[in-house]
Amino acid sequence: MGKRIELLQSKCGEENYNKLVALDNPSLVDFVARYVELCNPASVFIRTDSPADIQYKRERALIQGEEQKLKIDGHTVHFDGYFDQARDRENTKFLISENLNLGSNLNCIAREEGLREIHALLTDIMRGKQMFVAFFCLGPLDSDFSIYAVQITDSAYVAHSEDILYRPAYDIFKKRGVDIEFFKYVHSAGELENNVSKNVDKRRIYIDFLDNIVYSVNTQYAGNTIGLKKLALRLAIRRASQEKWLAEHMFIMGVHGPENRKTYFAGAFPSLCGKTSTCMVKGETIIGDDIAYLRKRDGYVFAVNVERGIFGIIRDVNEQGDPLIWEALNKSGEIIFSNILVKDGVPYWLGDGRQMPSDGINFSGRWWKDKTDKKGNVIPYAHPNARYTIALRMLKNCDSELENPRGVRIGGIVYGGRDSDTWPPVFESFNWEHGVATIAASLESETTAATLGKEGVRKFNPMANLDFLSIPIGQYIKNHLDFVKNLKVPPLIFGVNYFLKDKDGKFLTDKQDKRIWLKWMELRIHRDVEAIETPIGYFPKFEDLRRLFGGVLNKDYSQEDYIKQFTLRTEQNLQKIRRIIYIYANDITETPDSLMAILKEQERRLEQVIVSSDSSALSKKT
Predict the structure, then answer these.
(1) CATH code for 247-306+402-610?
(2) Which of 23, 199, 201, 424 is least crowded, fewest Cβ atoms below 10 Å from its Cβ?
(3) Nearest of 316, 287, 389, 349 to residue 76 by alpha carbon
């Protein structure tokens, strides 16, 4: 027995060591032993799928002070450090070598240099702490979609969060032994001060594709530390590219049509563009709100939710606008709130519809009204990026097919961004390739004053997945264009826009109107209604929308509203397509020729409309 294994055995103790070796996988044991030796924890806990092991991690999060109990049974709160409240894009890097081309759009570091740095940071970083080792599955268990994973962390909060969000898979590892492949994650919160990561200036998140390992140090924020979330998405996108399937930043939901019909949609939206509010609308069901794997089977596209829970932005969740989430967040059950304000055991957050407390405890420590930080900035009572972690099964609208290992058949894919003046509220592409090129790969979203300090700046974000790509953009788009080869019925692709405004800056649609757009899309998939052909795709007919507004919302829908919403904004759409053509011609390498051809065809169609309009106007004058 080597010294490394002897050290592992002493750190684990007999019970935990036996749990590990029972998996009958020497490479897995060696992986754990390697980081036990490097990180030097005081002890190691191996988490099986037993309720007792899961409960142990919940209790450790409280004992270690990473979580505190709240007033409602099962609710806890976690606070990240003041400067550790979001994903660290700058220090999230891919390790590259001579034979690994990731494209020019990714943040990279030479592999040897990155490994030296991260291993130096990890050396003895868990001294005096307990290491947790857990086994999970991305997607339903024992499925064509399943990707298995091992998480090493010294944060009981991270371990507890993953128990809520992902399927436990120790028993699968035990059953498969050496035949199982898995992603690996190594995390340490580093030195703690007041129970939060102290050395955030040394925060690093490094991704090594050669060994399928993600490293994360000196951070607690879940977006940087929960390896199976967006960090795993980067690993999965690369694997999907090699294996000809798609790993996407998408929700999955069921939309209910006539005669008890249910049609499943996937959808991708940049942040603050309506993604969660879409998949949580009244009357429909949710499978997932964030990450989906899509595969082809029997001539159709099927998808699963990678997760079984939600790590959701809680800002603006209130009883009126989000009744289903609100109900779940206010009943007993296992929920972790993060970076909200606590007053007398009750959590408060921005936009919750309640009166703001005058004081309490938040991410800055003890908080009071008009409290400022060292730079004189007023500290809000809750962080704008405050979150909640909850199991999907706690929601009344959780779809019955959540754990179906076959996934659900996708009838349509929806893309939406924040757009004040160009796209209509809903429209359909001419076909898959047209939808990929002019909707998905052309997705933009306008910034808001609240997020970046300047409104109306259009951010290019193809498939709402730009931040998580681990392959060149051109290759990623080619994968989408090629995905429907040999399919009997490709999903329809739709664009939506909840932020269209009139000339006075007023929104032209209401929050509940998205229910109508979903119902129309469902009808179009089954060709129950016709549509109007325009240069950018198919628009709804007024009569169909009027009927849906009356039947679903009991609301009159006027021809005047229809004209305001669905008049083709030719000049704005032409400007948009030219922006996108410029980006792909000048900023993106390996842009597929077919993509450029489709974009230019749309440009010509829009130009022809303008020429025809000008000719018509000239004829009238003559």
Answers:
(1) 3.90.228.20
(2) 201
(3) 389
pLDDT in tens, 396-433: 999 999 999 999 999 999 999 999 999 999 999 999 99
Q: Helix 570-586 to helix 593-621 angle, to the nearest 10 degrees?
A: 150
One-letter amino acid of 512: Q
CATH 3.90.228.20 residue window(s) in the chain: 247-306+402-610
Which of these, 564, 546, 423, lies nearest to 496 by C-alpha position?
Answer: 423
Radius of gyration of the chain (CA): 25
Cβ contact 353:319 at 8 Å: yes
Cβ proximity of 247 and 239 under 8 Å: yes
As a whole number of angstroms, the distance between CA 594 and CA 434 comes to: 10
First-to-final CA distance of the chain: 97
Predicted structure pTM score: 0.94
Q: 3-66+90-243 domain in CATH 3.10.620.30?
A: no
Q: Give how far Cα 80 sits from Cα of 337, 340, 386, Å.
A: 11, 10, 10
CA distance 62 to 78: 10
Structure token pair of residue 22: 């029972």
The whole-number mean pLDDT for each consecutive block of 10 residues of the chain, a chain of 622 residues, reads 88 97 96 98 98 96 97 98 93 85 77 96 98 98 96 98 98 95 97 95 96 97 95 96 97 97 97 89 96 96 98 92 93 97 97 94 96 94 96 97 98 96 97 98 81 69 94 95 93 97 94 96 98 98 98 97 97 97 92 97 96 56 36
User: CA 521 to CA 499: how far, in whole Å?
Assistant: 18
460 DSSP assignment: E
Whether 439 and 398 have beta carbons less than 8 Å apart is answered as no
**Residues belonging to the active site:** 273
For residue 219, give the nearest of 206, 204, 233, 231 by alpha carbon. 204
State how far the Cα of 309 lies from the Cα of 264, in Å rounded to an integer.
Answer: 19
